[in-house]
Amino acid sequence: MARNVSPNQHPGLVADIKRLLDALQQGDDSTRGKLDAIYSELIAYRDRRIYYKTPEPCDPELTHEQCWSLSLVMSEWKQMFAFSPGRVDGIPSLLALVDLVRRTPHLEVTGLFRDAAWKQLVQMRGPVETIIVAQCNNCATEYIVIGTSGFMDMYGAVCDRCGNVALIDIYGKHKDVIPACTCGGTYVVGCPSCQSREKTILREISPYEYFLTHQYRAAK
Question: Do residues 116 and 86 both lie within one domain?
């Protein structure tokens, strides 16, 4: 049964998340729906906080800082299990972050991002924002597009042979000439067949799924 959005009806939000993640780690897939409901509640809370400055936290026992951090942790869970079977190997890091949130009432987002458990998640999914399957408008080839944060000053190039990713520093020595991939392929931005960058977006892939079978490296 999905949980009600009203914060006054579930004072044990952190305990609920930990219990459900533990069960999922043990192979209980029935918890996914309940975790997804919690994720949706936290995103709705975050939207209310942004647009309406809602005074109520997501849970009576938590601060706004804790609620915001939990929404970020559960967003990682959403990406981690956006495909089947998901990344159960990432659950220990999620649990560690939930514990960090629980014991830090005024946790800043920067503190969350500096934590070793968060860095482990970034290592799993790569320091990227989005991974998109696109179709070239010129030759109809399907290819991968890497989206990175504007704060990183990097862009992603994809090997035309193995699909591995190079993250290129826009101010670095490889900003114009990208080194070859270790497999012998060429890192490409845009269509690997005709080099056009005109595209149609087909679908999005979770970075947790893509980097389960591919690698990334920084070329500075």
Answer: yes
